[in-house]
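haha ok so turns out i had the wrong file open the whole time. this is the CORRECT one, sorry everyone. sequence first:
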Amino acid sequence: MLIDPSRGESAHAALQSRRGALGTIGAGALALLATTGTSSAFFSRKPKISVLTPSAPVDFSELPQDWVAHQGRELKAYAEFLASLRLQKLTPRQVIASHAKQRGSVWNSLPPRNMWRQMAPTLRVIDRVSMQLGHPVKQIVSAYRAPAYNARCPGAKSGSYHQANVAVDVQFEVSPSTVAQTARALRSSGVFRGGVGRYPTFTHIDTRGQNVDW
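then structure:
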């Protein structure tokens, strides 16, 4: 088989020309990218550092002072944790005040530190409900309940999700049925999985992981 030398040379020249063109395009593209903000982030990716500004101190002066003293340093730490959730319609004081309650001789308490994060999803749901309603939270009636305190609450079950720190009883300036309807609509849209219960004066919302209504 005979090979035409001239054909080989022209093919080689064409290949070299294409390589040169691609090289020129590549260099041009890099030069263009280097002048844009996007390319600068691409070529020198630096980790983003979020700086948290200190939150305003929570005023505990109106809470029972014996209860405040008994919580010790955990009270301020829990307030800072709640502030870190950046809730828009719910304040750390509203959540904390729901724990400063007494049934007979038994006081409730803050949740143990290893259970703090379990409440975050439920508080975010309450925040969303408030935004949907267009009304601020009037009161958190109940959040975490210590076992001894829970046993003194009328109608409370021994396996209450309040003891697991995933349940909240909440009041708004609208009827509990409206609050429950709004919470169930959010749940249907995939915002959370949990229980929604309607009572005469408040609405129960929890994030137990399975949907239950009453």
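The two ends are 89 Å apart (CA to CA).
again sry for the mixup
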